[in-house]
Amino acid sequence: MKSKYDKNNVFAKILRSEIPCNKILENDSALAFSDINPQAPIHVLVIPKNAYVSFYDFTNNADSREVELFWRLVNDVILKENIHGKGFRLITNSGDHGNQDVPHFHIHILGGKNLGRMIN
Ligand code: AMP
């Protein structure tokens, strides 16, 4: 079942160029940009260009090409930011228990320092 998508969420506005972002990379299916409130020296968000609420929505409803291009862009950001050697963390917050703030699926890419334990 497709979850209800809020077209007025902040990432939908970025995709419609209604508000700016610091773009890092993009491809046909996904966009990567800097998090406005970085939690590490490198903090990039990757979002699909189509409307998906969460990881579950994206993984179950996107077609395989879209899924492939999304994860390729995650990989391309990791290479561009040169964090593949020292390491990094990928996070997706989903729903209430995941404390998801923006209801458009996104992956956080964090790196540039030792990030400590996963949950403090
Ligand atoms: P989450 O809790 O996983 O939904 O995280 C949402 C993230 O979006 C937070 O890390 C915010 O700092 C980030 N964010 C919110 N508004 C913007 C914006 N306009 N540009 C870039 N990042 C944003």
Largest sheet composition: 5 strands, antiparallel
Helix content bin: 25-40%
CATH fold node name: HIT family, subunit A
Please tell me the overall pLDDT. Answer: 96
- Sequence stretches where pLDDT stays below 50 over 5 or more residues: none
Number of domains: 1
How far apart, in Å, are the first and last alpha carbons? 34 Å
Number of helices, where a helix is a run of at least 4 consecutive DSSP H or I residues: 3
CATH architecture: 2-Layer Sandwich
The gross shape turns out to be: globular
In summary, what is this structure?
The chain is α+β, with helices and mostly antiparallel strands and 120 residues long.
Note the topology.
Blueprint lengths: L9 H6 L7 E4 L3 E5 L7 E7 L6 H7 L2 H17 L7 E4 L15 E5 L9
Antiparallel strand pairs: 1-2, 2-3, 3-5, 4-5
Bound molecules: adenosine monophosphate.
The site of adenosine monophosphate has 12 residues, from loops.
How would you describe the overall organization of this protein?
- There is one protein chain.
- This protein starts with 9 loop residues before the first helix and ends in a 9-residue tail after the last strand.
- Helices cover 25% and strands 21% of the residues.
- It has 120 residues and is of the alpha+beta class.
- The chain is built from 3 helices and 5 strands.
- A 5-stranded antiparallel beta sheet has the order 1-2-3-5-4, with helices on one face.
- The protein has one domain (21-111): HIT-like (HIT family, subunit A), CATH 3.30.428.
- The radius of gyration is 14 Å and the shape is globular.
- The model has no long low-confidence stretch (mean pLDDT 96).
- It binds adenosine monophosphate.
- Residues 10, 19, 21, 35-37, 45, 93, 99-102 line the site of adenosine monophosphate (AMP).
- Adenosine monophosphate (AMP) binds at residues 10, 19, 21, 35-37, 45, 93, 99-102.
